[in-house]
Each structure stands twice: as structure tokens, then as C-alpha cells.
Amino acid sequence: MQYFLGRYEYAMDARGRVPLPPRYRDAFAVGAVISQGPDPCLRLFTAESFEQQAALYTSEPATARAGRITRHAFFSNSFSVELDRQGRILVPSPLRAYAELEGSVVVAGAGEWLEVWNPERFDIEMAVADRQQESDARPAEPGS
Questions:
Q1: What sign does the dihedral 99-76-84-47 (CA atoms) show?
Q2: DSSP symbol at 113
């Protein structure tokens, strides 16, 4: 399995096309799915990683209300996309609106997928992550 790493800054064009990092384009050549993430970003899955995520979202039976809600939330906010000859994907307009994408975007590695962020929102998220890591790294207070 390939892990996606790094942070890349790109310009999204007026039609909503976002370039992917050249080193990862081959991984998405056989198909990709872009989805609304639980954070205010988009997740870009390879065909293989989407199948793995879909299995998680379909683990609850469709006969149960929770299973249907989970499916609705995940699958209705997921779209198949293809790379064009310039290595870009077209981000559907509902997803661009959700993630507040205009002009500059950050494409960030998140292990099993890539994420597409509004740069300001990404900076806020990274500041929160930095504070959490600092808090987790502090030794416990005596007596706690």
C-alpha cells in the first residue's frame, strides 16, 4: 500500500480543476473518488482506498437506520473523478462549496488518501494539531 505524504500548494482554475502532485498521479490513473471529509476538507481516494473506506461505511446493515444515515452521508457526498492530461481533477461544485475552495488550495497527504484544503482552514487545522501534539508530549503533572 502506498501512503500519501507532504503538503503541496496549487492554484485551482476557474473551472474547479486542481493539479495533483506529480509523484502521485499514477496512483490515481486507474480511477479516483473525491469525497466530503469529516473535517472541512475533501478526501481524494484511489480506487483501492475508496473500496476500503466504503467497506467501513457499509459495515452497519442497511436495514438499520444508522446504517442508512452513514451510507447517505458518505456516498451522496462522493464523486468519481478522472485525471486529465495535465494531471488535474475536476472538483464538483458542491464539494468546492463545502470546503470553501477558490483560487489557492493545499493538497496534503493523509496516509491512505490525499486531502484538498482551503489554505486558511488548513493552517488553522495544523495549529490545532501542533497544540495537541505538544499537549500529548508533556509529562503528566505529579499527583494527576
A1: positive
A2: S
